[in-house]
Amino acid sequence: xxxxxxxxxxxxxxxxxxLREDDAMKDLFSPGSLLTVAGAVLTVIGSVAYATDSPxxxxxxxxxxxxxxxxxxxxxxxxxxxxxxxxxxxxFSELRDSTGTKEQLKLxxxxxxxxxxxxxxxxxxxEALKLWDEENxxxxxxxxxxxxxxxxxxEMVFELGDVPREHWHQKxxxxxxxxxxxxxxxxxxxxxxxxxxxxxxxxx
Length: 204
Prior knowledge:
Elements: H1 2-8, H2 13-28, H3 31-51, H4 55-78, E1 79-80, E2 84-85, H5 93-99, H6 102-111, E3 115-116, H7 123-128, E4 139-148, E5 151-159, H8 165-170, H9 172-179, E6 184-189, E7 194-200
Parallel strand pairs: 2-4
Antiparallel strand pairs: 1-3, 4-5, 5-7, 6-7
Helix pairs in contact: 1-2, 3-4
């Protein structure tokens, strides 16, 4: 889904393949996946120990392994992976630290984490802006940092879901102010069902 969206924006198939591999690795090392694997390993070790008459090993590992495994499955069922981060974290670290606003930095920190029990990143913000659909909400596909006239800026690519594109453009003036004082939002239509949102500070 993410790679198809990025190809629609003009990224090469090779780049999209690399992102698919990155998504697979990201999914493998999600908290839910790690707990599921750890619980499964403990349960298997305990079962083998039980079968070989090693009660001192089998009982504790099974006792802990099964709940951990079930907890991991529960997390997996409700997890929301972070969007693709198109720029390495270190690339704009100096610009981020020197000119990034606290609102921009908080937004970046919020969306690059795994979320649980949410349908989409920035869920509460999109609901407040009335850019939300309960059945098929907009999904943040990728985020990038860039230099806008010497100041730190963010670029986000959304898959629109069932929220009409026109609704976003009607909220363009409010979007920047909503995310923080002194910020402006620039919207650009992508191909298919994509919208590019740039959240930046005005050029001096």
